[in-house]
């Protein structure tokens, strides 16, 4: 059984755990360096990016997470998690983890009161996916090797950069598990390659 870690310092942790378990994987809440051992993939959930970044720093998780990335472990960032993954955040001198080759702008779709849900066309999916936007960022610039998977109003809101998957919205707040399934398939493929 695949073990999917989920950064459990703040944000929509339970909802991600529910989807991971629905897809027959083991969900490992990550609160310390020890929790990162033996996981096959890592989810960085939504929440408040500045708060999560401070907590990741306080719990000395930044370098261990970067080490996992160096070792090829797939990572999936939703909303604030996308901001954590990005190599550059508009208006900030330094990135948080700086792993995914994208430039991200925070709060692109308005404040909390401007939250909304839409149906999006996703590359590779015949039917649209539901997307919940809450103080969502978007990808302003995608690197040369980044695959754009979905846009909303011409803004990139879902993309893949090799082992990294970044999402502006909150797929975990819907009953649709296709994006989590996409990530778990990334993890499965990586696990197979690593074991060869």
Automatic annotation (TrEMBL):
Active-site residues per Swiss-Prot or TrEMBL entry: 79, 170, 172
Pathway as given in its UniProt record: Cofactor biosynthesis; pyridoxal 5'-phosphate biosynthesis
Subunit structure: In the presence of PdxS, forms a dodecamer of heterodimers. Only shows activity in the heterodimer.
Reactions listed under catalytic activity: aldehydo-D-ribose 5-phosphate + D-glyceraldehyde 3-phosphate + L-glutamine = pyridoxal 5'-phosphate + L-glutamate + phosphate + 3 H2O + H(+); L-glutamine + H2O = L-glutamate + NH4(+)
Function: Catalyzes the hydrolysis of glutamine to glutamate and ammonia as part of the biosynthesis of pyridoxal 5'-phosphate. The resulting ammonia molecule is channeled to the active site of PdxS.
GO molecular function, one term: pyridoxal 5'-phosphate synthase (glutamine hydrolysing) activity
Species of the source: Cytobacillus depressus
Lineage: Bacteria, Bacillati, Bacillota, Bacilli, Bacillales
Record-stated family: Belongs to the glutaminase PdxT/SNO family.
Protein name (database record): Pyridoxal 5'-phosphate synthase subunit PdxT
Any GO CC annotation of this UniProt entry: glutaminase complex
Short name of one Pfam family: SNO
Domain of life: Bacteria
UniProt keyword terms in alphabetical order: Glutamine amidotransferase, Hydrolase, Lyase, Pyridoxal phosphate
Enzyme Commission designation: 4.3.3.6, 3.5.1.2
Alphabetized Gene3D superfamilies for the sequence: 3.40.50.880
Single GO BP term: L-glutamine catabolic process
Binding positions (L-glutamine): 47-49, 106, 134-135
